Amino acid sequence: MSRAERTLAALRSALAENPRNGPIWLEVAEILAELGRTSEATEACREAVRYLEEKTEKQRAEALLSELVPAADPAPSNVFTLVRGGPAAPATPRPLASVSTEPVTFGDVGGLDTVKETIRMRIVLPFQHPEVFAAYRKKTGGGILMYGPPGCGKTLLARATAGECGARFINVAIDDVLDMWYGESERKLAALFEEARSHAPAVLFFDEMEAIGASRQQLRGSPGKVLVNQLLSEMDGMSGRNDRVLVMGATNAPWHVDPALRRPGRFDRVLLVPPPDRPARLEILRLALRQRPVADSVDLAMLAKKTEGFSGADLSDLVEQASEAPIREALTNGTIRPIDEKDLLGALARAKATTKEWFSTAKNYATFSNVGGLYDDLVAYLAEQR
Ligand SMILES: Nc1ncnc2c1ncn2[C@@H]1O[C@H](COP(=O)(O)OP(=O)(O)OP(=O)(O)O)[C@@H](O)[C@H]1O
Ligand SMILES: [Mg+2]
Fold this sequence. Notes:
By secondary structure, this protein is α/β, with parallel strands linked by helices. It has 3 domains: about 5-80, Serine Threonine Protein Phosphatase 5, Tetratricopeptide repeat, CATH 1.25.40.10; about 95-275, P-loop containing nucleotide triphosphate hydrolases (Rossmann fold, 3-Layer(aba) Sandwich), CATH 3.40.50; about 280-350, Helicase, Ruva Protein, domain 3, CATH 1.10.8. The chain has helices at about 5-15, 20-35, 40-50, 55-70, 75-85, 115-130, 130-135, 155-165, 175, 185-200, 210-220, 225-240, 280-290, 300-305, 310-335, 340-350, 355-370, 375-385, and strands spanning about 95-100, 145, 170-175, 200-205, 245-250, 265-270. Strands 1-3-4-5-2-6 form a 6-stranded mixed β-sheet, with helices on both faces. Helix 3 (about 40-50) packs across helix 17. The longest helix is centred in the C-terminal third of the chain and has 22 residues, at about 310-335. The site of magnesium ion has 4 residues, from helix 8. The site of adenosine-5'-triphosphate (ATP) has 19 residues, from helix 8, helix 13 and helix 15.
């Protein structure tokens, strides 16, 4: 092991103790940058900028970050909104949550068998057979927090969970709940729980969970902290009553989710929603093509093989792109022809796998701050990919 590697290992264990130590992140970033490990250095540097408070150090981190990625925006936008006071309110206020009753079930979700199984055991079955779980005094309730790269099915799974339970799906973006006016965020949150109860059975799905945590860390004594506490008390209050409201959450950045939200009875199961493996990619391609005309000759297995690193969203995008040429032709000559392999391969040539980038960030956390085995499923996944 080189000297730099030894130093890195020591810093790594310090970060495992305290993942919010800005100066150590900066040290790590500088060493990684010297070693030419740019993507890891970039992510470490982002963390340094996030957590550093001392001015000259923060400037040093920002300078390094701009060398590593020109024109990077280091902080989540909602934090800036809170600090600066966001833009003027839009003329027509956006609804706080979008409610949907379209039935989507696990059958519409390709792959992800272990994740589905966990959700079935933790949420769907207790919901359908409360008496069985009560007979064994088995505790139910407690939310599931899903995390993983973008476009791999977190939102879809939450929607499908609602479908499996025959419950209404209420989708909440935390960013829309956060409000710079004192007391306003709490009022919105209370209204959401009220809405869910009045529409029960319902799945209340909190997307962008990191937004709530980030605001609490960065602005001490800010609306974020009060909001976390209120979310906690709403969830605690629910466990006693039989509200028939299920709570799920999702994030791309579980490391920025407030740890208080992960205590027992709250979002106490943290689940990785990984990119689809080859069989899952095949299933997702089939699902995406199921209601479109497709030539028999199309070799989907070959496509599944060639799309390593693609997210579910990348794959549905690919199918969308492949449909464009046949549509254009049909509009000019009036005949509907099936999508063929050439269309799909053409779309593939222009497509890009989007999950890799997320893993370069995630890897840092999996190695540097896997406190209490929180990211064990991520560590296992990374080990499998080697
Ligand atoms: N496992 C899957 N099976 C079928 N379709 C999928 C799957 N994963 C993703 N998709 C497709 O990609 C779209 C986007 O997925 P989804 O919104 O669930 O991703 P996400 O993990 O919530 O992403 P983000 O982190 O960006 O919110 C879905 O609407 C669906 O069309
Ligand atoms: Mg989503």
